[in-house]
Fold:
Amino acid sequence: MGQYFRPCRGAARTLMIDLHSHILPGLDDGSPNLAESLEMARLAVGDGTTHMACTPHIMPGVYGNRTANIVLAMQGLELALQDAAIPLTLYVGADVHIAPDLQGQLSSGNVPTLNKSRYFLFEPPHHILPPRLEDLAQRLIEAGFVPIITHPERLTWIKSNYDVIERLNAAGCLIQLTADSIVGAFGRTALYYSEKLLDEGRVDIVASDAHSSTRRRPGLSQAVAAVAKRCGEDEAYGMVLLRPREILADRPLMPVGAARRKKQAPAPVNRLGGLGRLFKGGSE
Structure:
């Protein structure tokens, strides 16, 4: 997976980066074995994904993953991908749940960020809004990390606490929607809040949160088409290529929602600039 990435003219409309997947075998509730991981990879590549972050759950008392075992699992999958001639570049990450020592674990490197960047996937509890969630996010931001709030549209408490998502976004947290939510696969409520977040200009990233080849499959193209219809093609590809590229390269990003509320003029973006440099190696 260490080859240089050489995009051709017009490639910006065919390449996609998936920052949230449970493709590593046997680490959580995602892929149970290597054969399933390879099938997930085939589906992702067939749908247009070229680069994928491996982000197993880290949840105290449930999934005790740490950077060391995630790296080993990713390296094993990389070798299998090479043997199977599946052109998918992998990056280390995790789907990180709340823990009292989270800041220390991130700072020590025991809990991985995305490709050793300042950015990490931050998953709040689905059914209960934890006390002082905003305080925790603020401490993490002040420590130099950037939480990416994963699939807020699927949180059951979003109905009565949407203002918490608004404040987290304003404080500096990025927002990631699940691709299947955008196309209605998680039901009406998740679709409603996906569209609300999109219409308010709060969404930074769309990712698959893939768990298997049959249930919650990898793939971003249908969601990209839906976002493009709603928000425009440029914004759709910003969510699956441009911003994910910046995140993996550890470049500074202001949440798109915060930037728009401040009415900042968008800086010129070279749609493919730096891809060759970034993608010369997927893992370290």
About this structure: Residues 224 and 237 are 7 Å apart (CA to CA).
